[in-house]
């Protein structure tokens, strides 16, 4: 989640490990000056042209700051100006607590090698600069349009089928977290770089290479505020629930090596870009729309069913309009498009029973439907304490965690036993 952005798509790749580092920072209180200093360090020739440097701020995000920087040289068309434009993304305050920025850069470079990400031009102390390429950011309503969800299914299948899941070289945890005996970690941690703590995170799901979606959630739970009895109790409860989820879900069979694929894990509308249509005659059978994905800060090896269920949750947008989530038939159509694309990207797809794979993944996504609420609920509890952005993270956390508990209550029969009505989200999910 967690940022609406303008359009960028695939650009030329560079070799891994060669991304330039600029030893400067972006300053929100002195936005234009600090942004200009960064851009002119990257593009010093812009200072000596007769062009006018302009900034376009994209303000719909709830995590980061995003600026488009253009050099309006006389005589150039808007497309030619955009071809040289740069996007500046500055990280939200405190987000290093929940996002591994080194891993994000590795993700970006990995995707660039597969022509699935824009060119990363440079990093700086609290952000990055990358290439802008034209396109249109989608809205939640767009995600529900057939031509868009088909394109999303195709692109997501390519990510999952083509991009390898690479383990990170794990260094000691760089940020102090809040532990306690209730969750099996001394409180407070004796060191900001406690290797035992990193090992506890990496080993939450035995047998799965770290990092992965389970290690992300474990890190977040350790980072939850725990200064009051209520917070300590909630942290312990969520830890107990994560342990339960790992036991139930981490070894389920699925697509990919170790049942993990390289997952986006944040496929909301603002991260889906509709690419410009090429001129000329469209080949028969070619998708009407082609999309690209942006923002890789949460990308990590994950079960494909989690990534898909997480995307379906975003059909309802930030307001969590559960009545707009995909019905059974919509989910089946999406998964059919996904499976056909996934196996088309596989080098050896002989003997694949597509219909069986479609039904298998459909059932698996159904099983996973409650987990995204748990994932983003924990995330929002942390954001409620660290973010300076005007967004009601606390309420968002309650809604998303509520999705998880409602799913639990429906699965274990406690809702029916209590005579409670089926919640809107579960009711919508059950619709044909």
From TrEMBL:
Principal EC category: transferase
CDD domains: ETNK_euk
GO cellular component, one term: cytoplasm
Gene3D superfamilies: 3.90.1200.10
Pathway named in the protein's UniProt entry: Phospholipid metabolism; phosphatidylethanolamine biosynthesis; phosphatidylethanolamine from ethanolamine: step 1/3
Family: Belongs to the choline/ethanolamine kinase family.
Name of this chain's protein: ethanolamine kinase
Taxonomy of the source species: Eukaryota, Fungi, Dikarya, Ascomycota, Pezizomycotina
């Amino acid at each position: 989640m967690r940022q609406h952005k303008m359009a960028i798509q695939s650009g030329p790749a560079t070799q891994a490990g060669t991304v330039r580092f600029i030893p400067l920072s972006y300053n929100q209180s002195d936005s234009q000056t600090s942004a200009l200093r960064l851009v002119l360090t990257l593009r010093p020739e812009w200072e000596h042209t007769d062009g006018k440097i302009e900034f376009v701020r994209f303000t719909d995000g709830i995590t980061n700051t995003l600026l488009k920087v253009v050099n309006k040289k006389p005589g150039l068309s808007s497309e030619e100006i955009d071809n040289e434009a740069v996007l500046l993304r500055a990280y939200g305050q405190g987000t290093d607590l929940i996002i591994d920025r080194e891993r994000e850069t590795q993700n970006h470079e990995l995707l660039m090698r597969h022509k699935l990400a824009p060119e990363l031009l440079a990093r700086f102390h609290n952000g990055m600069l990358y290439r802008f390429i034209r396109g249109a950011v989608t809205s939640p309503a767009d995600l529900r349009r057939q031509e868009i969800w088909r394109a999303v299914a195709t692109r997501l299948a390519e990510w999952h089928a083509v991009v390898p899941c690479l383990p990170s070289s794990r260094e000691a945890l760089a940020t102090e977290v809040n532990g306690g005996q209730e969750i099996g970690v001394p409180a407070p941690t004796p060191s900001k770089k406690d290797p035992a703590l990193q090992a506890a995170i990496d080993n939450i799901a035995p047998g799965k290479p770290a990092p992965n979606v389970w290690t992300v959630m474990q890190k977040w739970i350790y980072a939850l505020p725990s200064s009051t009895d209520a917070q300590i109790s909630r942290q312990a409860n969520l830890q107990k629930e994560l342990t339960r989820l790992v036991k139930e879900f981490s070894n389920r069979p699925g697509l990919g090596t170790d049942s993990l694929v390289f997952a986006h894990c944040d496929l909301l509308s603002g991260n889906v870009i509709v690419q410009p249509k090429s001129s000329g005659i469209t080949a028969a059978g070619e998708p009407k729309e082609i999309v690209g994905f942006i923002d890789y800060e949460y990308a990590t090896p994950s079960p494909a069913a989690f990534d898909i269920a997480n995307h379906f949750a975003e059909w309802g947008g930030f307001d969590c309009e559960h009545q707009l989530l995909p019905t059974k038939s919509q989910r089946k159509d999406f998964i059919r498009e996904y499976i056909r694309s996934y196996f088309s990207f596989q080098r050896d797809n002989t003997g694949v029973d597509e219909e069986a794979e479609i039904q298998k993944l459909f059932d698996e996504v159904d099983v996973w439907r409650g987990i995204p609420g748990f994932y983003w609920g924990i995330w929002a509890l942390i954001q409620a304490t660290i973010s300076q952005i005007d967004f009601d993270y606390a309420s968002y956390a309650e809604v998303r965690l509520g999705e998880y508990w409602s799913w639990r209550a429906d699965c274990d029969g406690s809702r029916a036993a209590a005579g409670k009505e089926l919640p809107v989200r579960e009711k919508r999910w059950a619709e044909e």
